[in-house]
């Protein structure tokens, strides 16, 4: 079923290059003659949006530029690549979702988009929405999606910057150490999205049945999500502790050898390295042995 596959997301009218990397026995290699044909199909009615050749971007890497004209309609699409390898026909397909315009999401760098995508996956298998996700996604007046998550990402970074000392100054417009702290960024965004879901469920009505229309009572959703927030916040707090320690330069233990000892390396009753460092070196002189 096409609705159940993982999809690459593009906002409406977005322009982006989408492609794939061809491997032969685990090594990147070109297709025969570097001829790769792409076709974009609208899954709603199986209509062909376009058919055109792909560009060779690097060794074994091919892609096609999707323009605003290609992504002007929201929906689910299949982008296929046809080529031959050693004269044997082959094909690869990528599944796309074109959603509402998302300027906040489109403005993010590749690293921040990857963080949004990683957090989105955590909500993708919820069964309340026809395509997976929280129940909010089914309402026409709802704006829950990657654009909203991109807006919440700014809140998450603000919390990381100001929750404790030392104050940091990371922004969506600057560089972020994704390699070192990408997991922390994702967890911070995840908690902010959970809190957003709690806010969204605050005003759900109590009435479940009416004279003509019945409505499911979803007010308890807030309490359920609150349980998730409390659980995930504990993990986030531990990660933030490590983050603060490194920014304070406390990631490695240092001992002042001469001139005294400080902190945990002060004098202790039971002796050891701490006591010796604090009192200096006093050799024992034995008399009359």
Summary tags:
single chain; 289 residues; alpha+beta; Immunoglobulin-like; 3 domains; five-stranded mixed beta sheet; three-stranded antiparallel beta sheet; 10 strands; 21% strand
Description:
By secondary structure, this protein is of the alpha+beta class. The protein has three domains: 2-99, Immunoglobulin-like (Sandwich); 106-207 and 217-247, no CATH class; 253-289, no CATH class. Helices cover 31% and strands 21% of the residues. It has six helices and ten strands; from the N terminus they run ββββββββββαααααα. The strands form three sheets. The chain has a five-stranded mixed beta sheet with strand order 1-10-9-5-6. The chain has a three-stranded antiparallel beta sheet with strand order 2-8-7, with no helix packed on it. β9 (75-85) and β10 (88-99) form a beta hairpin. The model is unreliable at 259-286 (pLDDT under 50).
**Low-pLDDT residue intervals, each spanning 5 or more residues:** 259-286
Report how far the terminal alpha carbons are from each other.
Answer: 92 Å
How do the strands of the widest beta sheet line up side by side? 1-10-9-5-6
How many structurally independent domains?
Answer: 3
